[in-house]
Design goal:
258 residues; alpha/beta; binds S-adenosylmethionine; 15 strands; Rossmann fold; 2 domains; four-stranded antiparallel sheet; Vcp-like ATPase, Chain A, domain 2; seven-stranded mixed sheet
Length: 258
């Protein structure tokens, strides 16, 4: 995920045939990528400009794109539920996360949120991510390495409800079953005015977390939910898609006060 615009050996690219058929592919010299529309020689991709196209052995045309954070997290391997782009977008905006931020996160899970956080705190920020299950942490480490973002992340195999090691952090973000147990530790770890975020699938989790935030010394507490609906734009028959994801999770935001 760098800013150069020419495909190099070792890059991870997004190869797109159409809306449904798209793959994350590592560009390795002398290797081939097999699709139902023929074989693509990866040597043919090296040196191409992102946005250009490459032809397969059957003459089918594939577009070559730089994967956006959204493409990456939707295509990477996952063994846990992940936070979806619509919710991550709000997490970034409502917490203020940006370059140089020091962020604590739990649980790491498959690392989808970790990838996006690491991408946005570059070049001087850092993510400290806590996870209790080693097999999840291992996969998350692989996913972050594939995205070439590992230097921005410290992985911790630790139960965050036993305490947070870092201090003076800009944000604490929780996606785990019992966020309310972490609220006092988040208060200790955050700098004054720092951002707290919790993502929970159920209302019961939200209530426990909000009551704990009120008791602990947080302010500006809000809980929101986000729906997105795809619009199908067609000549003379533009309308919303008939199905949509109705529920993922509730987002709670708060600021530390003294
Ligand atoms: C839904 S997953 C997180 C997914 C992640 N946000 C993503 O986007 O890929 C929840 C994770 O929290 C971890 N977890 C639960 N309780 C924890 C705790 N007390 N400390 C650290 N991790 C915890 C679980 O093992 C699980 O991997």
């Amino acid at each position: 995920m760098s800013s150069k615009n020419i495909v190099d050996e070792g890059d991870l690219i997004l190869l797109v045939f159409d809306e449904k058929r798209r793959w994350l592919v590592k560009v390795e010299k002398d290797k081939e990528f097999h699709t139902h529309k023929g074989v693509i020689k990866l040597n043919d991709v090296i040196g191409k400009t992102y946005g250009s196209s490459v032809k397969s052995s059957t003459g089918a045309k594939f577009r070559v794109f730089k994967p956006l954070p959204r493409d990456y997290i939707l295509k990477m391997r996952r063994i846990t539920q992940i936070i979806y782009p619509k919710d991550i977008g709000l997490i970034l905006l409502y917490s203020g996360i940006g370059p140089g931020w020091k962020v604590v996160e739990a649980g790491t899970g498959s690392g989808a949120l970790t990838v996006v956080l690491a991408y946005y705190v570059r070049p001087d920020g850092h993510i400290y991510t806590y996870e209790v299950r080693e097999e999840f942490q291992k996969l998350a480490i692989k996913n972050i390495k594939n995205a070439a973002l590992e230097k921005y992340v410290t992985f911790k195999l630790k139960d965050i409800s036993e305490g947070i090691d870092e201090r003076n952090v800009d944000a604490v973000i929780l996606d785990m079953a019992t966020p309310w147990l972490v609220v006092p530790h988040a208060y200790e770890a955050l700098k004054e005015g720092g951002s707290f975020v919790s993502y929970s699938p159920t209302i019961e989790q939200v209530q426990k977390t909000v009551f704990s935030l009120l008791k602990t010394g947080f302010f500006d507490i809000i809980t929101i939910e986000c729906f997105t609906r795809r619009i199908l734009v067609r000549e003379g028959k533009t309308r919303p898609a008939t199905s949509m994801i109705s529920h993922t999770g509730y987002l709670t935001f708060a600021r530390k006060i003294t």
